[in-house]
Queue: 4 jobs
Job 1
Amino acid sequence: MSVKTVIVTGGSSGIGLSISELLIKEQYNVIILDLITPNKCDAIFFKCDITNETEVVTTFQTILKQHSTIYGVINNAGIICDKMIWKMTSEEFDKVINVNLKGTWLVCRESAKIMRQQNYGRIINISSRAWLGNPGQTNYSASKAGIIGLSRALALELGKYNVSVNVIAPGLIDTPLTQSLSPEVRQKLINLQPQKNIGKPEDVAQAVSFLLNEKTNFINGQLLYVDGGRSIGLSI
């Protein structure tokens, strides 16, 4: 292949935008699937609700007609709706699961159909260190843990077709979400980090680039933390 086509869900802002921008610099043909149009990004854009099965199927069919092959898919789209469980409604639970887990599954399914026929491909699913558990995030933590299980099973299904499936689990990253926290809460979270700092969206993008590279062909079904060591435990 000369130019490799890569799809990034939720690629219009935050970590997804950093992933898209880096992959464009690395000469990938980047297609963003999102509900909002990205600003100042040279990626191709498709408006797509990843929780809508018909939209996902139709969008992938259109992309395949226009670009013939799909080298990689990065499932980055996700939402949060944090509350302690006794305050959380079933609708708030379902909303997070539908976007983070079912949406990822729908995109993985359409990707798998295409990559299986191609006999090559890369799927990278963005989970979170929160899969280990965070108070107030029973819905989010469950969805991100589900992504890891989904990815491991899919890696076993697609391995013989030369398709790798891996997971990246970011920790505390400097995004609009963390920037909206009060200075006190933000500093408290930083103090929990072994490195006493906060990650950048570019740190996650570099991990995506690493797993997309053909030289990492033998890495499959793995979980890569990008969290400054926070997943190991609390620092002292």
Job 2
Amino acid sequence: MRVDGPEGDVAGARVCAARTGGAETCATSGADGRATVEIPPGTYTVRATPQAGQRLKEALVTTDLTEATTVVIPMLGRAT
């Protein structure tokens, strides 16, 4: 999974994936915005929470990972 913000890759975001009614599996994005979460194929809700101090909004996407192995999570900037 890759977290993408208004200025590019987002490091330090907490990325969690869960099936409906299931437990979350989480990882933290690295400097390249990528987080690796090992989950079986299926449909997931993926949540990315920015690191404290980053002026970004939490992002939520639903994606089918039965055939795809990568999802991009767009995080929007907060207004100043």
Job 3
Amino acid sequence: MEKDTHTAITAPLNSNQSAVDNKDIKSLYGDDYLKWKSWGGESDFAKIKKTEKSYFTAEIKKTNHSFPAGSSVLEIGFGNGSFLTYSKEKKWHICGIEINEELVKTAIGCGFDVRHSDNLMAFDDNSFDLIVAFDVLEHIPQDALPNFIKEVRRILKINGFFIARFPNGDSPFGLLNQNGDVTHITTIGSGKIYYFAAQSDMEVIYAGGEAQPLLGTSLLHFLHRLIALPIKKILGIITNLIFFPRSKVSFYSSNLTLIYKKTKPTQQPLST
């Protein structure tokens, strides 16, 4: 099992209370967690592999939107910092948030605009063209997710996008990722993707298996994917026809990706 390359941020339960208190955060996402993740100091932070570049590019391509230099981007739970570097290379204005203080200190030392936070309340409405959360939603209590996504929507610009990746709750092939981290507490399948979108008034642009690009991988991974991907595709078609004829389930993907788009202004509460 590949460990998540990003860590999590918890969502606020309401405007005055965080989902996880400081003591819980320290015990769950402290030094032991970083050691288990194999995340080191500044010398190892924000390194990005060709496979990661190819992966990020493939996921963002699903938006069918171009993000030019100067685009405002937020990463929720930046973890090892690889997407921060990816964004910097794209010349985006990238901001990151994390709940692990050591990661925040390391990122600041590397020159990134990041902050230590477990919520999005510090950001103004309509601030970002793109928000990403890789390996984050599974860390957030399910009853807090609707509020969390509404907050994401609030700080997105009109026609802005939200991309998230998490273990596949539709398939047993997602169990290794879901159960491989003690901080994972919520399982998400395709049905919940559409439910949360409806709750937050977001348009679903994509809901399905994570990208598995061939380019940028090692020769061994290239050959493996070259053989495995067509087999998974065929098996997926057969499985859906037999077991899920009325649904489109990415049964053979270990992770799911969702892409939401904010197409309408955030409704302001009525004044009293």
Job 4
Amino acid sequence: MSAEALVLTAQCLPDADRHMDVLRTFNRDVAGGTLTLAHDYDSYRHITFRPRSGNFCWFDIITSPGQLTIRGDMGDYMFSREHDMLRDFFHRYVNAGYWAEKVLAQDVNSPIREYSFDKFRGQVLHDFWHAREDYTPEEARALWEEIRFTGPLDDYADNQHINGAIDALQNFRAESVDGFSFQVDFEQDFQDYSHQYLWCCHAILWVARAYREHHEAVAA
């Protein structure tokens, strides 16, 4: 291929893919930007994305035999699995868990996994929902009001980080019923894939599709 940069055309990723909230954000972020194939020789490639003016979501994708690196505003991650990662690994849909297993290096400020309040809240609801059967409807209602308004789900509770979340569960003492406590496990998984990691996964999939479509068009 000529050394002259080639502008790739790419459609937004379909809404059938996973992690819909991140995908919708990604599609908004890249709308109107420019995807450019700056270098393309064998498995050595440099593909750049530059957003529309005023939008901060640029990224570069760089490949060489056995590795693919994405770097940019949303973080830096290096993947390794297949000889040609762009063609042979990233396809179909974002498989966040499997892809994470192939990460050799991750951004220190944007790790793959981070504390998730949604997961914390889900565990609180799970414990309450299973415990409610041990109480009368009135007791269960009173217990829920304690959890929601003075306990771990109180709007002013210190539950926006992992240590505060564990403390909120461990220190909760129900006054309306006897015998209720949260089963706090310090190995409990209150983490989920970070927004930045998922965004970068969608970016890689988007670029891989555009790259394959470009070469299919050239071959035709």
